[in-house]
Amino acid sequence: MRRYPGELYELAEVPTDSRLANADLLPTRVAERTWTTYNMASLWIGLAVCIPTYMLAAGLVQGGMSWWQAMVTILLGNLIVTLPMILVAHAGTRFGIPFPVLARASFGTAGAHIPALLRALVACGWFGIQTWIGGQAIDTMLRTAWPGWANVPGGPWLAFGAFWLLNLWIVVAGSAAIKRLEAWAAPFLIVSGLALLGWAALKAGGFGPILSQPSRFHTTGELLRFFVPSLTAMVGFWATLALNIPDLSRYARNQQAQTWGQLLGLPTTMTLFSFIGVAVTSASVLIFGEAIWDPVALLSRLGHPLVILISLFALLIATLTTNVAANVVAPANSLANLWPSRVSFAVGGVVTGVIGIAIQPWRLLSDFGTFIFGWLVGYSALLGPIAGIFIADYWRVRRARLSLADLYAADGLYPRFNPKALLALVAGVAVALVGLVVPALRPLYDYAWFVGFAVGYFLYAWSMGGTPVLDFSGVPDASPPAGGKGG
């Protein structure tokens, strides 16, 4: 292992154990870590500007919150989740490792499959949701441009299949294609969202009428009963990326790029686009006489066919950028980690797509309650403990020092299974989910991510007490790669 300026580390020799390494799981070279602050921020803009973000905000208003209560809930939730995001991303940037390899440090070289598969399962569900929305948008675009499309047998399913293939094509093209897509799409998406907001304000007679809808909660107690699980849902929305962010941060040129890129990109964009969702949904009541929280349905009623086509194209780009980076990279890497010698990233991506269809995403989007309090809060109980274990292991137990070579060795420093990590995971999930079966303990489920995170963190840190910290004083220094910046 070699140390470069900026505390970036690189393997001196390529691992040869095909059971633990393939081209997609190997750590990135320092010369490959080229993503700047702008690349990281634009990545988050592409991730956050998506239809589930819009629906999330609209669902809070539909559930009874005023526009400012919804905004505060969304901003607070995203500020909270940004902290573990940055802490977990540190390992990806420092050592160039993806999420499944980082999991080996705490769960063991074989035990890492467990958190990886849990994360992959959730991502497959999200892939299905996003692909279904994108397919609906394509179907509406075709109906607008060519009314005869409505008579094509299986038209909506053909549109869904076309969007499914487009997502997988981008994934197979690799990380460079993702980087180019995000950098190009980020400014376009912001402009498109602001244009939709301007249209809503113009049609509704200004922001005054749009934002005049009061909260339907009459007491603080009523508000808190809705606010608590809603806040958990906000954190749960990105609890997925809080685990596999190393899959992306391992391409950042330094810690400043990944830290500032995420701080500038995530909370700000989520809050801005959520405001667009709240305002436009409120405006739809004034314009059409009903609240339309499905943006595809709303855009189809804008009037002029050209305006509809441009708006739906923006929706497609928003859906595509989120789906590729957030919902395919993680499960594809996780599935490749199961059998590195036989399963490539591309094959893992295809399997992700198939599972995403099998999950039947149209059921998860049946109403805002199922989407927010069932889907988001429910899976946060699974992912919160894993985030707690990762942070406890990397920062408290190992002091941000990992042996790169041993992460790719079956008989190295890290065991095949770490029962202490598995115990902390099971305990965290069990404590969070007990609120579903014991009414008196319902707050444990309402705070599922927070409860699971706390149990996982403290139980793991306590059980791993006394673990020796690696001595990095003997790691040789290296010069920055030619044409690159190591610090």
**Helix percentage:** 55-70%
Please provide the count of β strands. Answer: 2
Annotation field: number of helices: 22
Structural class determined from secondary elements: mainly alpha
The mean pLDDT is: 84
- Separation of the first and last Cα atoms: 17 Å
Outline of the structure:
This protein is mainly alpha-helical. The chain is built from 22 helices and two strands. 69% of the residues lie in helices and 1% in strands.
Characteristics:
single chain, two-stranded antiparallel ribbon, 69% helix, 22 helices, 487 residues, disordered C terminus, 2 strands
Written account of the structure:
By secondary structure, the protein is mainly α. Helix content is 69%, strand content 1%. The protein contains 22 helices and 2 strands. The protein has helices at residues 37-48, 51-62, 67-95, 99-107, 113-145, 155-173, 175-204, 207-210, 220-237, 241-244, 246-249, 255-288, 295-299, 305-327, 329-338, 345-358, 361-364, 368-397, 404-407, 419-433, 442-446, 448-463; strands at 2-4, 8-10. The protein has a two-stranded antiparallel sheet. Helix 3 packs parallel to helix 18 (368-397) and helix 4 (99-107) crosses helix 18. The two termini are 17 Å apart. Mean pLDDT is 84; it is low at 483-487.
